[in-house]
Amino acid sequence: MWTTTLALVLLGAPAGQEQTGASTATTDDDLRNAFVDLEDEYDEAKQEWYGLLSAAYQKAQESNGEIAFTEPDPIEPDWYPRFADLAVEGSIDAEVWCIVQHRYSGLDGDEAHADTRERYELVLSEARPDAMLQSVTYALMSDARASYAGKAYTPSPREAEAFAFLDAIDALTKSDDLRALTLYARGSALIPYMTPDDKKARGLAYYEKAANAYPKTEMGQRCAGYVFAGKNLKVGMKAPDIVGKDHDGNDLKLSDFAGKVAVIDFWGFW
Amino acid sequence: MAMIPHEKELVQRLKDEPFVLLGINSDDKATYVKQRAEMGVTWPSINDASVSPSISTSWGVESWPTIYVLDHEGVIRFKGVRGEKMDAAVAQLLAEMKAGEKGQ
Q1: pLDDT single digits (tens) A211-250
Q2: Quick check: is B103 in a domain?
Q3: Pick from A67, B5, B11, B65: CA 20 to 30 A from residue A182's CA?
Q4: Which domain covers residue A184, as residue numbers?
Q5: Residues of B in contact with A250 (CB under 8 A)
C-alpha cells in the first residue's frame, strides 16, 4: 500500500483516477520527498534574495561609495511556518531545518526559544544520522554563544540548556568526529571573538579535552591548534619553528631564516 | 591574494636587508605553480599541507591571511598587521636590529 502511494506521488495519478489523501504525506519516503521539494523551493527563493542583496549592495556603492546598505527583508519568516507544518506531519528533516533557522523564524525571543526547545527534545529523543546531529550541534553552538562586544563578557542565558543537549548528542552518536565537534562547540561558544584572556579558560578546557580525547579527528586537531596558539603564539613569545616542505618537495623551515626579521604570512591564491 | 602587489613591493625594496617574507601557502600545487609564475611571486612558501596536521591547523589559524611579524631573534612582535602597518613593523624591527648591532 505504501508503495502504491509513493508511486502516485512520483508519477502522478493516472488521469481520471480518484486520488485520495494525495496531499497528506504519510510515509517516511513521502515526508522525505516533501521536505526535499520544499527545501528546493526555499533555496530558489533564497537565491533570488541573494540577487536582491547583491543589487542593493551595488546600488549603495555606486551612489555613495559606502559599504553600508539596507538588506532586503528576510524571507525566512515566510518560510518558517511551511517547514513547521511539515514538521508537524512528522518530518524530522523539517524539524532540523526549523532548528537551524530558528533565529530567523520571525517569532519573538521567548516564543522562538520554547518552540525550538521542543524541536531539540524531539530530534534528540532517538538515534539520528550524524549529519543531522552535526547541523543541530552548530545551532546549539549559536544558542550557547557568549557575547563580548568590547564591553562586558556576557554568557548566553541558554548556555546550560544548550550544553545539556550537546551531552545528549554525545550519547546518541558513535562518531569521534562528532564528539570532537560538540566539544569544539562548547569551547567556541564560550570564546566569542574578542573575548578577554581572563574569560577564556573555561572554553580552552573544552578545546584541550577535544585535542586530547580525539587527536585523530579534524576538530580535535583544530582545537589542539587553538590551545597551542594560546600557549605559544602570543606577542612577546619566541616563535616555535615551522618545519615543512615547499610545493616542489624541498625541505623548508622557519629556522632556515634565523637571524632575520621575518613576516610569516598564511596565505593562498585560491 | 589582494596583498600580493604590496608584498612584492616590500620584498623588492628590502632585498638587501636581513629580512624574509615566508609564506605558508594553502593552495594545491598546480594552482600555486601557475599563479606564482603569473603573479611574479619570488618569496618562499612552505606548503601548508606538507605536514599533517597542516601548519595552519597546528597554529590555530582561523582566518586568512594571518600574519605574524618576528624580530631577528625570532620573537613574535606583531600579529595581523597588513599594508602600511606591516611596512612600519618591519622597518621598526630592522632599525632595532641595526641599533643593537651598533650598541654591541
Answers
A1: 999 999 999 999 999 999 999 999 999 999 999 999 999 9
A2: no
A3: B65
A4: 127-146+154-233
A5: none
Cell of A221: 586537531
**Cβ of residue B97 closer than 8 Å to a chain A Cβ:** yes
> Could you tell me the pTM of the whole model?
0.83
B69: domain CATH number is 3.40.30.10
Task: For A134-190, write each residue's pLDDT tens digit.
Answer: 999 999 999 999 998 778 999 999 999 999 999 999 999 999 999 999 999 999 999
pLDDT band at A60 (very low <50, low <70, confident <90, very high): confident
CA distances from A218 to A156, A184, A221, A227, B50 (A): 27, 11, 5, 14, 16
Please check whether residue A266 lies inside any domain of the structure: no
Asked if the Cβ–Cβ distance from B51 to A244 is below 8 Å, we say: yes
Residue A7 pLDDT level (bands cut at 50, 70, 90): very low
Same domain, yes or no: A132 and A224:
yes
Domain count, chain A: 2
Say whether both A116 and A133 belong to one domain.
Answer: no
Work out the average pLDDT over A8-20: 42
Pairing state of beta strands A261-267 and B66-70? Answer: antiparallel
| The predicted structure's pLDDT at residue B70 | 98
Specify if A61 maps to a domain.
Answer: yes
Kindly list the distances between the CA atom of residue A93 and the CA atoms of A55, A75, A213, B46, B78, in Å, as whole numbers in the listed order: 32, 19, 31, 43, 47
Strand, helix or coil for residue B46: strand
Count of residues in chain A? 270
